Amino acid sequence: MRIERLNLARFRSFTAVEWRPEPGINLITGDNGAGKTSLLEAAHLLAHGRSFRGSVRDGLIQNGQADLEVFAQWGERHGRSRAVGLRHAGREWQARLDGQPSTSLAELCTALAMMTFEPGSHELIAGRSEPRRRFVDWALFHVEPEFLPLWRRYARALRQRNALLKSGEAGALLEAWDQELAQAGEPIARMRALYLQHLAPLLARAMATFVPELGEPKLVHLQGWKRQEQSLLEALERNRARDLAFGHSSVGPHRADWRIDFAGLPSWNALSRGQEKLVALACFFAQGQAYADARGEWPVVALDDLASELDRDHQRRVLLDLAALGAQVLITGTELPTALVDGRVPATRFHVEQGEVRRLV
Ligand SMILES: Nc1ncnc2c1ncn2[C@@H]1O[C@H](COP(=O)(O)OP(=O)(O)OP(=O)(O)O)[C@@H](O)[C@H]1O
Ligand SMILES: [Mg+2]
Question: Which listed CATH number (3.30.160.620, 1.20.1050.90, 3.40.525.10, 3.30.1600.10) goes with 129-273?
Answer without folding.
Answer: 1.20.1050.90
